[in-house]
Structures are given as C-alpha cells and as structure tokens.
Amino acid sequence: MPTIKDVAKQVGVSTATVSHVINNTRFVSAELKQRVLKAIRDLGYHPNAIARSLVKRKTHTIGILISDILNPFYTAIVRRIEDVTYKSGYSVMLCNTDEDPEKEILYIQMLLEKRIDGLIISTAFQDGTHPLLSQLKAISLVTIVRRIKGVASDAIFGDNMGGAYQAIDHLIRLGHRKIGIVSGPTGLSSGAERLEGYKKALEDHRTPIEDQWVKIGDFKRESGYSLTKEMFQRDPLPTALFVVNNQMAIGALQALNELKIRIPKDISLISFDDMEWYSFLDPPLTTVEHSPYLIGKTAGEMVLQRISNKRKSPKKVVLPSHLIIRASTAHVAKERR
C-alpha cells in the first residue's frame, strides 16, 4: 500500500508539501499541486482519514440517533438528513436506540469517541432529562421530534398539540362525542403534547374526557394492539379513536379487524404520522401529517450551520401539522351519539 513518502519521492518534494496539498493548509503553487495530485492518483494513495481528522480537528462525520429504525417516519427523516449532509461532504453514522435510554448513552459515548462533528438526536429519555447534558452541550447538536431539557440546542419539531387538536376537532364536527385515544408516553414531549391537544379540543367543545378511553402506550405496534383491544372489550364503547403514531395505529387496525369492528361504520379512526401506503388501505386512513422529509432537511441544514459556526444562537423550528381527511372517518350514527 503506497504511503505519503512514496508520493513525496515520486514528485521530488517533502512529505510536508504533500500534506499541505492534501489538507490545503499552506500555499502550494498550482503547477506543483497538480503534480502532487497526479502522483496520488497514479500511485493509488489514500490519505489516512484518522490522521487528517487530528490535523483538521474535523472528521466530516455526523451522528444520528433515532428511537426506532423500523418506523418509516424516522427512516424518511434519516434519508433527507443524509441527502443534505452528503452534498456538503459529510458522512453519517446512524444509531438506533429502540427506545432504550441505556443504548442511547452507549451510542452517544461511542459517537463522541469517534470525534463526530455534529449530532442529530431524537431522545429516548422520558421527562426530557438526560444524564449526558455536559457532553451534549459541548458539540454541535440538533434535537428532533422530542425535546431535551437543559440543552439550548437547535431544535425542530412538529406541532404535536395543534395536530392532535385538529384531529379531535374534525371528529367532533362529525358528531362524535365518545372519542378514545391511544397516546404515547407522557414523559416524552411528543406523547405529552398530543395528549394535551386531545384534551384541549374536548374541553373547548365542552365534551367530557372519559378516563376509560384514555390509554397510554409506548409508540410501538404491540401497545397499539393491546390497548385498542382493552378499550373495545368494555362498555360503553367509543365511536371514534385517535392513535398518536403510525406504529400504534398498525396495532390498532389489527385489533379492530380481529374484533370485527368496521371502519368507519362502527368506529372512526385517525392516526398521527401520515404514511404513503395509508391511502391504499381499505378504507384509506385519515391522518395528521408533519413532513418527515422537511424535518430531516431542516435538521441537516441546521447541523451544518452549527458546525461551520455560521450561527451562534440556538434556533427552534416548529413545523405545522396538517389533517389529511380520508374515508376512515364519518358522521356518527344518531343512535350512537
């Protein structure tokens, strides 16, 4: 394998000159620079990335921590982050915590040891607290989807409360008053805010909140399945159901199918997080959408700005949520009001 010494010998210069050409750290004449680059190509020399990162104090690597790689919402975010950062010469290291705070700690420590230039994270820690606050404050950080208390970082979220409010307002305008919810963990900002939007819409329409129709899941398919079955095996039954993420919505659909509860004749159903294939369901699913691609694009741009010190003060972006009405919601039958 050729070394920097081989390049220097072929061109007839010092290894320091070759290093200056590779790292662009000092002026080298255009003619000499071209000779060095030609020798690098001819010899098939590849500079040591670790050594270059020590010299430049940059690895051109961005860490991404997400909570569930199986969730298409997160994979869409990651795809867009990678699109944006790749154009600026950065690679990404993707870690999946699977909603496990211990894995999150280990991955953050590993990424810091790899000397990442920036980190984009959707935390698994509930109640917004984090045991690695000092380390997170020391790097170029962007938080997405969920908040981390005590860190004045760049952040981008969807309008969770507003999106949930739109969903419940839509159901109430269809005549529903018995509306259940399968919510996410209230220790996570996304879960707490969607539950708050549900409650506020009911309160604004002077509709009572029934505890038996409020179920708290963990954002995973299995909890959507089990909690929906639990809700619909005890009278009185709701006439509408709001499920606050796509994975739990899949579980809810499975449970309703097994219970032979028809959508929307027996139950109107709304999910948070729109997926491309929702429109192909029978019936197509009404959803609350906040674009994962836009979240990913904005997060990628934010972390690059932070790394390059183009912006000193933290920036917070809240993307609007939009209700997409499809055939899974309908007016409630008069006898069930």
Instruction: Just name the CATH architecture of the largest domain.
Output: 3-Layer(aba) Sandwich
Strand line-up in the sheet with most strands? 2-1-3-4-5-11
- Shape, principal axes of CA atoms: elongated
CATH topology name of the largest domain, in short, is: Rossmann fold
Q: Could you tell me the radius of gyration in angstroms?
A: 26 Å
**Arithmetic mean of pLDDT:** 91
- How far from one another are the termini? 78 Å
Instruction: Write down the CATH class of the largest domain.
Output: Alpha Beta
Characterization of this structure:
- The chain has helices spanning 4-11, 15-23, 30-43, 49-56, 72-86, 101-113, 133-137, 160-173, 189-204, 221-231, 246-258, 292-307; strands at 61-66, 91-96, 118-121, 140-144, 154-158, 179-183, 214-216, 240-243, 268-272, 286-289, 316-319, 322-324.
- By secondary structure, the protein is α/β, with parallel strands linked by helices.
- It has three domains: 4-56, lambda repressor-like DNA-binding domains (434 Repressor (Amino-terminal Domain)); 61-158 and 292-320, Response regulator (Rossmann fold, 3-Layer(aba) Sandwich); 160-289 and 323-336, Response regulator (Rossmann fold), CATH 3.40.50.2300.
- The protein has a six-stranded parallel sheet, with helices on both faces. It has a six-stranded mixed sheet with strand order 7-6-8-9-10-12, sandwiched between helices.
- Strand 1, helix 5 (72-86) and strand 2 (91-96) form a beta-alpha-beta unit.
- Helix 1 crosses helix 3.
- The longest helix is centred in the middle third of the chain and has 16 residues, at 189-204.
- It is elongated, with a radius of gyration of 26 Å.
- The mean pLDDT is 91.
